[in-house]
Amino acid sequence: MSVTDLRTTTAVRVGRVEEIPLGEGRAFVAGGVQIAVFRLRDGSLHATQAACPHAGGPLADGQTDVDVLVCPLHQYAYRWSDGASTAGAFAIGVYPVREEDGTLVVEV
Ligand code: FES
User: Which PROSITE patterns does the UniProt record give (predicted)?
Assistant: First the structure.
């Protein structure tokens, strides 16, 4: 059993889906954890840690496409799938997120 298997998560309601314009992200606090939630133009939802591990950039203000999130400060790109940097440097935490009756629910 890995360490990851031992981690427990909590489902936290953080806001309404319509609070996030298509193609953008917004910062929330979920269970005491600062996160950024994104609603891509294809309607998919993603959640990451709020601060970039490089120098604390506000990831909620980053540019998005279907594959990556780009930090607004120094343009490091992070994959939605696993949070890894496309440059092989830092990685960000990613969290499961879903919509339930218009409410954003994040597992932290
Ligand atoms: S703070 Fe995000 S890339 Fe530098």
Answer: RIESKE
